[in-house]
Amino acid sequence: MSIDSSLCTLQQLANRKDAAWCFNVPIYQRLYVWGDEQIKTLLTDIANAFDRGDTQFFLGGTLLVEKTTDEDRNQGMRRFDLIDGQQRFTTLWMLSTVPVWSQVMEDFSRVVLKEGTIPRLHFSIREQVNDFLASMMPGGKATSSEIIDTQSMREAQQLMASFAQTYKRADGGPVDDEYLKALASFVYHNVSLVLTQVPEGMDLNKLFEVINNRGIQLQHHEILKARLLQDIPAENRFRFAALWNACADMSGFVERNLCLGTQLEAHRLGDLYNKGQLLHAGAVHALLDRKSNFAQTDGYDRLTLQAIVDGSVTDIGAAPAAITEDDGEAPWARSIIGFPLFLLHVLRIWLKEQGQADLPRVLDRQLLALFEAHLLAPADSAQREARAQGFIDLLWRMRVLWDEYVIKWVDQGDDEIHQVCHTSISASEDKRYINRSRDNAAHQGLSLLQSMLYHSQEITTHYWLTPFLYFIHKHAHTVRGGGGEIERYYGFLCHLDNQLLGEVTDASLVVRSRRFMDDPWRTASALQFDAVLTEDHGVRFAHYWFYKLDFVLWYEQQRDHEFWGNFRFTAKNSVEHISPQTPQVIDTNTVSRDWLDRFGNLALVSRSINSEYGNLPYNEKRQRFLNKRAYEKRPDSLKMDLIYSKETWGEVAADAHQAAMLTALQCHYQRVFTID
What is the model's pTM? Predict the structure, then answer.
């Protein structure tokens, strides 16, 4: 039995000369389950590659088993079962059906046969799903949005359609239809899949067993750790490896990670925290020095990058890969970003401290390349040692500050919310322990603002984090400081948000965010909100402005409205028309076409809410919103809360609402947030 693999672009796949290739998802495969994060990451990675001028983007492999029948051959078609990689393939197929993208990628979405046009993708024994796929073809009949099996696909398409509002180009250029067409052309001509055909008689269970047991490849940050530890004398490697490992586990809190990885007594770190010394890596090194030198083993003496890559060294630093039940309670908080991205933010701060040029971009897929160019340049052994130790010590400091002042995803019953977690010290006899709490009352404003930025900015970069962390780094002599430190950091972040993201400029975010590291209280020569929000952009309004407005309303007016104190940000990807684009005849609360796409008639909602509201009359939408608000004791949107406080809607009300929103924003932008 032979196995045939080939590298294939979407264009090549759509234009096979032997026959039209169609793909079937077998019944034993899952339905489409990719969510927001996977889709955003994929689209952002592809867009970043396009912006860099890459000529190819590899998307991974797809396993196929041919199932072509005689009837298929008569139709000029070959049919293949997708036995692995169907989530990626389905994502690409749906992308080819989205407006603007479809103008370039339509040939990938469909197959033209003798008896008509069919989708290139098919699901076995799932006719409702197939009806939905067929509805995407030219002249296709719309299907019900209530079908559960198609919900994830519908939501994915809506997210893809809103990509123009969520993606921010590194050069600051517009993400308009022309850009999307060029990006779609890149996807069609330059995104490559490895198509591997396996014989129909092959034992698929054994095949998957081989695939799943082939071993986990080292991640880039593990290779980077090895590179840095090579430059540190063997007698010191244990301490620096311990700090790195504690920082690398972005779940939970760093002091817990360090204790679990080194058997260091928790009260030792509690004492440091209480004395204001936990920030200082030197104090932690001193604690580790007093531990037994069990880590000074021959394994560290043999540590080389080649050995790690070859697999002869499987563990660097002896940090546990997972926490067992015997090790204590599992973490109830997790990071908003992964460790590679955190490393790049710390690298930007290290470069600033060294007086060196900034990174050209923040891109976790290029972690090693960026560190090679900016940290791991050739140098003598003393310089390499100082560089490696200095960076890891800075990494520890930044991770302590991160846990103290940056939001995490925090478990709250069946839900997760964003919080800056409250820290306190408890005493038992003469020992002190660090306690982390879900109580967030003192940090609510800081948590909300960060949550707004998290939801409104590109998830693979978060450029705002670098100047924010750098500001804290320069001002935090301890994490046990005076009562004004939270207010100072909160004030700076308010200023940073206004000036960094509101500035009228063509400069990229990486360049602009570095300017705020040089001059944290700099002000923009011009702000764009008043010009942007008076335009008729409709669904093309950047989602940031809706998120931003809700934060401003909370900041300026939360004490004046019931339930606003309970407000929190959630993921929203759909622009809702308060007065629908196609209103029902019975709806008297409408606006003219001239007012339809103005900011005053719009709100940002989740895709499920957008689907639920549809073209319902204003009164019915209003009642549903108020019912949900009363039940949850918090509004989904403060902008919508103000809108639906009105019993009627029309152009006069929309005009007054828009004017009030611009006034609220103007007031916020005019505030001075500097705290001495």
Answer: 0.78
